[in-house]
């Protein structure tokens, strides 16, 4: 006999149980004092629960949601999430600034040492009537990345003063928005980086990964020595040794030396994959900008601060 009902049980424990059960029918039964029994073939569990009234009220959309291709939003996340700070004290930087209006969609993240910016201008019929300007927590972005993996449709999204709503197929994700003032990212965008070097992204990423094996574990510093036609990458530690590698480049400017955190470079190069990468800079002391040399669908920029060597 099946009787409808509702109660609350611990989601994590129930999930741990469910993923270990065999492929067979599962029976739930509510017992006295809000205990629940779970049975599946020869497996038996008893879980402590609480009344359904203790479950927090689920917020609902207060305005018509905006539709956006899930593929676009996943690309936004993949190319920016790594630049979000992991320091809990830096609250307003612990998420992504997301903006959506008739001109297009934009997402910005930063940890104070580097900044990732991506924009998709042509949303077509998905262009919203109302603007969205909100701060999405890192944890929410990570969950959205899971929801949009392999999902080919549109996601519906909306925001109010306190919450952000995302709907992908039958799944609804509601997140509390971050509060506070996100830094003026436009001030960080370099305006006069007049020197440009073009690299094969895969070759550069592999070289940085290899040389970084000999970088200092604390600073992750590597040295880039750029000359006409080639880039020399080097790292060394007094205790373990050194590494050097040369990568071909399209560059005909003056000789320059600049230091970077190798992990910061790898994060960008891992995100863009194959293709030509443009490295734009002014000198060895100013912020540099990296981007795909050709990307018709997105305006993607990665600004990174140099290190003193």
Write a structural description.
The chain is of the alpha+beta class. The chain folds into three domains: 8-54, Roll (DNA Polymerase III, Chain A, domain 2); 66-186, DNA Polymerase III, subunit A, domain 2 (DNA Polymerase III, Chain A, domain 2), CATH 3.10.150.10; 190-304, DNA Polymerase III, subunit A, domain 2 (DNA Polymerase III, Chain A, domain 2, Roll), CATH 3.10.150. Helices cover 16% and strands 39% of the residues. It is built from five helices and 20 strands. The strands form four sheets. The protein has an eight-stranded antiparallel sheet. Strands 1-4-3-2 form a four-stranded antiparallel sheet. A four-stranded antiparallel sheet has the order 5-10-11-12. A hairpin with a 2-residue loop joins strand 6 and strand 7 (104-110). Helix 2 crosses helix 3 and helix 4 (201-211) runs antiparallel to helix 5 (262-272). It is elongated and about 80 Å long. The termini are far apart. The mean pLDDT is 89.
């Amino acid at each position: 006999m099946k009787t409808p009902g509702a109660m609350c049980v611990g989601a994590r424990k129930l999930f741990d149980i469910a993923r270990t059960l065999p492929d067979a029918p599962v029976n739930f039964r509510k017992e006295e004092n809000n205990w629940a029994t779970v049975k599946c073939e020869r497996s038996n569990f008893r879980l402590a629960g609480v009344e359904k009234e203790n479950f927090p009220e689920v917020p609902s959309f207060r305005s018509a949601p905006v539709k956006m291709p899930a593929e676009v939003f996943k690309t936004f996340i993949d190319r920016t999430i790594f630049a979000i700070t992991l320091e809990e004290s830096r609250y307003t930087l612990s998420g992504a600034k997301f903006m959506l209006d008739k001109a297009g969609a934009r997402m910005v993240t930063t940890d104070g040492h580097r900044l990732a910016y991506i924009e998709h201008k042509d949303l077509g019929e998905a262009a919203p009537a109302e603007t969205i300007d909100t701060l999405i927590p890192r944890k929410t972005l990570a969950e959205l990345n899971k929801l949009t993996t392999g999902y080919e449709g549109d996601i519906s999204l909306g925001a109010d003063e306190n919450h952000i709503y995302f709907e992908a197929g039958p799944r609804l994700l509601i997140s509390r928005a971050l509060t506070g003032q996100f830094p003026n990212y436009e001030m960080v965008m370099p305006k006069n980086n007049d020197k440009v070097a073009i690299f094969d992204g895969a070759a550069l990423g592999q070289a940085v990964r290899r040389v970084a094996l000999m970088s200092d574990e604390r600073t992750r510093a590597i040295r880039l020595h750029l000359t006409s036609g080639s880039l020399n990458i080097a790292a060394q530690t007094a205790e373990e040794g050194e590494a050097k590698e040369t990568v071909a480049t399209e560059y005909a400017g003056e000789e320059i030396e600049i230091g970077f955190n190798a992990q910061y470079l790898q994060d960008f190069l891992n995100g863009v994959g194959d293709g030509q990468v443009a490295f734009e800079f002014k000198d060895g002391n100013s912020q540099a900008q990296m981007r795909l040399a050709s990307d018709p669908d997105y305006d993607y920029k990665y600004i990174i601060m140099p290190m003193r060597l």
